[in-house]
Amino acid sequence: MSSSTEQTMTIPTYDDVLAAHERIKPYIHETPVLTSRLLNELTGAELFFKCENFQKAAAFKVRGASNAVFGLTEEEAKKGVATHSSGNHALSLSYAAGQRGIPVTVVMPRTAPQAKKDAVVGYGGTIVECEPSTSSREAVFADVVAESGADFVHPYNDPRVIAGQATCSRELLSQVDNLDAVIAPIGGGGMVSGTCLTLSSIAPEIKIYAAEPLNADDAARSFRAGHIIADDAPNTVADGLKVPLKDLTWHFVSNHVTDIFTATEEEIVDAMKLIWKRMKIIVEPSSAVPLATILKNPDVFKGKRVGVILTGGNVDLDTLPWLNN
Amino acid sequence: MSSSTEQTMTIPTYDDVLAAHERIKPYIHETPVLTSRLLNELTGAELFFKCENFQKAAAFKVRGASNAVFGLTEEEAKKGVATHSSGNHALSLSYAAGQRGIPVTVVMPRTAPQAKKDAVVGYGGTIVECEPSTSSREAVFADVVAESGADFVHPYNDPRVIAGQATCSRELLSQVDNLDAVIAPIGGGGMVSGTCLTLSSIAPEIKIYAAEPLNADDAARSFRAGHIIADDAPNTVADGLKVPLKDLTWHFVSNHVTDIFTATEEEIVDAMKLIWKRMKIIVEPSSAVPLATILKNPDVFKGKRVGVILTGGNVDLDTLPWLNN
Lengths: 325, 325
Description:
The structure is a homodimer.
Chain A: H1 3-6, H2 14-24, E1 33-34, H3 37-43, E2 46-51, H4 61-70, H5 74-78, E3 81-84, H6 88-100, E4 104-109, H7 114-122, E5 126-130, H8 134-148, E6 151-152, H9 159-175, E7 181-185, H10 190-202, E8 207-213, H11 218-225, H12 247-256, E9 259-263, H13 265-279, H14 285-296, H15 298-301, E10 305-310
Parallel strand pairs in A: 2-10, 3-4, 3-6, 4-5, 7-8, 7-10, 8-9
Antiparallel strand pairs in A: 1-2
Helix pairs in contact in A: 2-4, 2-9, 4-6, 4-9, 6-7, 9-10, 10-12, 13-14
């Protein structure tokens, strides 16, 4: 990491995590940790599933979004918040803004699924549509911010968001003793960065792994290359994991992650179905990527106590991936 | 209830429930109680969902089956246990017998779904097939018992089974204060009888409701008629609820249940999908019948604190009922 890059970033500290946790506690769940005898037998490890699928808006992203929203001054808050996302960050920011009672605008491609649009509106968000291209999205988003003065809450490359996501592993450490490792899915790297922030601060002996779809393995390739590689339009069933690392998340990933594993689409869907079938809980495809990689790399995890972050549970129940094959 | 009927029955007492709970504790989960802000808003009630879908074998029936299996003497146990069932009782008895390491034989129609057969075998059970008729099932089952001397564990009309199921509401009372009512699905009436046994003994102020598919409403009609009415072959998506009341369960239902409500197939499937979507947990159709009837009878439940038994989570993930319509 060159010093010139560092100068442009505000890197959150563990004090920021403690402040975030205090700030967001009224608006989030302390999610349960579940175990499964059968999945332990299958993997040879002791797995502790941190169930962010039971989180508000069914996504860990409520943690970071709430920290950003409730950290605004009264004056800033009046102008509202804005983001561009068609996924869990859009829902989560809409939820958090609704809790504070401030405006929230989400720029979404007009082609986004109606269910996602409905969910944002259901949480009180306003949608501004753009064309499904980066140039249109950026132009429309710039207009929204210029007009409203809304605070831009990036889905992951934002120190407030990372400090919020970091509260998840802080909870996990209070719920499970003597973990050897924690593994989380990686897309833009917000959850993994938060995990790095907490563990490197208070439990540096715990290894941190990331899990990524092979079809969107830009983080794994970045990790091996030593610099950020961004793919243009990867396609994977784990739709929360298509986005690339950015400077802030790269800082954490490059400094604290032990390894990044990948899984094929079939492995991800199989792991997702396995969680549904055996644990009787609903998780989205992204949440299943860590288990898929644990099953694929038994020697890394055998005999270890492993925290597994189940990142969310937003699934269209009418189009399950194992029924579309 | 005539005294002549009572003479043929052994009615379990609350002491039997306490003994059952002590006996089965090593083999069952104390299942969690979940709540949902949205479902509370939709119903106007405070709902406390007792998650037996997270139970061993994903069914409350493990409680009664384990009580029967672990209550056998060493000599009785050697001969094993047997039952006829193609549902959760078959899985549960197989699980419990496997835990004790004794033989278990399940008589199933040769037409039963392969997935159910695989599950019984997976838990260590032996399947003996019969033709899909009552006469064949009874003849084959009689042969099995005559040959092996196995102990017959009826799915519900057995005092050991009812005392076991009664541990579920005992747990619920230790987890939630000041309940006004408890509602459970009713098929043969094992869970409802267990609920009656516990509540009438230690919390008689709590009302007990039962919920039944309209397509298999023999319990509701029995309740109104004042005697058992058994339907021949009802057809409902809630496949655990097709069986009729028997003398022992009728004893509890007729003495302690306040009312039995019914729901249509569509209402059951809608309620099931609502639980999946909002609570992010997997429940089988039978588990959704109580919520369907609560939504349908808001005046009964409004403002009340209601325990809702989610009885199981065994679903074929490849054939979801809302995708078959």
